[in-house]
């Protein structure tokens, strides 16, 4: 059947094309190629889920053609085409998921990655069945393939995967990188606690090597952190009640912070408050990333945790300020625009701001309550905010964007800049802007950052009881 005839039969909704789809599925392998062409044609009038449904129901005969399409230049050029192919490949109606195993040896990394993804989404018994053919991909040259291989072992569960991975670690590797991949998978499955003495020694040796030449890089900033003007790491650990510090690279520490903060899918108790990352001294400041046991549970046990965060943070900053002369706390979210900061000088909190609690700020700026004059006028609540607009304020006069198509981003930006220049409206500040002025912005670390000592992952009271969270970390 040619593509024009297919288009005529399949143009319509899933309900409208039921009979046509049934007829094509009956024809089987003979229509795979033209249906696949329709699926990959972004200009086709056929809804792509309609053609995709036909391929899924045809099943195994469509697998290899879909794999070749995934490896094609067409898929490489178009993320949308690649997404459609992956969707159909993962949903083929096959009696045995073992049909995907030969694709683990496909020359194209995208196909290997896709096959691993499909296999790991079977029930736990199925990934165990595919462990042996997946082992070589723990050392695959493509990083995303290695990641999917680790995830497949993680899907098996610790009880099954840990013994398998330990055996891989103890045997001579058939190819470079496999034993290293098994070490990563062990950490991903059950955390550092499952690593034996030799594996921990190997990881620590690699960490020491990488720390010598590591160039600081800007961190993905999402979560909260404290900053104190000290290079005395032992004193900082003591101030937060931390123990068992393990030296790590900046890259490892940043990954742990982000992984723990975003680990909403984790089921283990205390996964968010088990450890923190204490940075090396960065331009003379030590940053503490994460959630300490004391603060986390003091907030979480309150009747209103959101209301409790401010007092807990202020108390902690005041205590740190008395000990170190000054202290700051910062918060940022990559998802909902939350930003906050708390500044202590000596043992006194002189400024606390939270965009979501804008009516309950310490050290309120003059003119914040209204918009009768250009926002930015009036004295800042703290010198670090000078020249900035606070994030809860609009600052733009009514009608500033009348006549502008807000869906046209370039037009919106042009008008925004014009109005800001005309009315003298300053840029909006966020926690990282205040941190850059007062201490260190972790999002702007780079070759210019002066690094003293080593960062560490340290256990909180919860971590000392429950151990490190599971999950592999980059070195």
Automatic annotation (TrEMBL):
Biased composition (Basic and acidic residues): 360-371
Stretches for region Disordered: 360-380
SUPFAM superfamilies per UniProt: ARM repeat (SSF48371)
Protein name: Uncharacterized protein
């Amino acid at each position: 059947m040619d593509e024009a005839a297919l288009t005529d039969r399949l143009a319509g909704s899933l309900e409208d094309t039921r009979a046509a789809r049934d007829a094509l599925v009956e024809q089987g392998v003979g229509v795979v190629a033209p249906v696949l062409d329709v699926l990959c044609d972004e200009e086709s009038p056929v809804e792509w889920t309609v053609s995709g449904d036909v391929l899924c129901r045809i099943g195994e005969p469509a697998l290899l053609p879909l794999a070749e399409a995934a490896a094609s230049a067409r898929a490489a050029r178009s993320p949308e085409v690649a997404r459609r192919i992956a969707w159909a490949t993962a949903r083929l109606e096959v009696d045995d998921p073992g049909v995907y195993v030969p694709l683990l040896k496909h020359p194209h990394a995208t196909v290997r990655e896709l096959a691993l993804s499909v296999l790991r989404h079977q029930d736990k018994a199925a990934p165990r069945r595919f462990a042996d053919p997946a082992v070589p991909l723990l050392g695959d040259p493509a990083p995303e393939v290695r990641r999917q291989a680790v995830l497949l072992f993680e899907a098996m569960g610790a009880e099954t995967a840990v013994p398998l991975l330990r055996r891989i670690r103890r045997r001579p590797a058939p190819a470079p990188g496999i034993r290293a991949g098994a070490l990563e998978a062990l950490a991903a499955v059950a955390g550092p606690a499952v690593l034996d003495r030799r594996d921990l020694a190997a990881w620590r040796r690699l960490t020491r090597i990488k720390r010598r030449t590591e160039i600081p890089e800007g961190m993905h900033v999402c979560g909260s952190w404290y900053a104190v003007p000290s290079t005395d790491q032992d004193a900082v650990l003591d101030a937060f009640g931390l123990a068992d510090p393990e030296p790590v690279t900046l890259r490892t520490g940043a990954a742990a912070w982000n992984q723990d903060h975003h680990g909403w899918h984790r089921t283990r108790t205390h996964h968010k408050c088990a450890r923190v990352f204490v940075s090396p001294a960065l331009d003379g400041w030590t940053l503490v990333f994460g959630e300490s046991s004391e603060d986390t549970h003091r907030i979480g046990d309150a009747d209103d945790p959101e209301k409790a965060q401010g007092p807990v943070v202020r108390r902690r900053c005041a205590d740190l300020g008395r000990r170190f002369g000054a202290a700051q706390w910062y918060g940022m979210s990559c998802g909902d625009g939350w930003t906050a900061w708390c500044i202590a000088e000596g043992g006194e909190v002189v400024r606390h701001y939270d965009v979501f609690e804008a009516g309950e700020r310490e050290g309120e700026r003059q003119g914040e309550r209204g918009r009768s004059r250009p926002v930015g006028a009036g004295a800042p609540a703290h010198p670090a905010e000078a020249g900035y607009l606070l994030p809860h304020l609009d600052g733009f006069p009514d009608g500033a964007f009348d006549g502008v198509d807000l869906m046209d981003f370039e037009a919106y930006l042009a008008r925004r800049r014009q109005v800001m220049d005309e009315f003298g409206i300053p840029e909006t500040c966020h926690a990282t802007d205040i941190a850059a002025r007062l201490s260190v912005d972790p999002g702007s670390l780079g070759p210019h950052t002066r690094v003293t000592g080593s960062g560490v992952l340290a256990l909180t009271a919860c971590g000392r009881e429950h151990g490190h969270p599971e999950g592999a970390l980059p070195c």
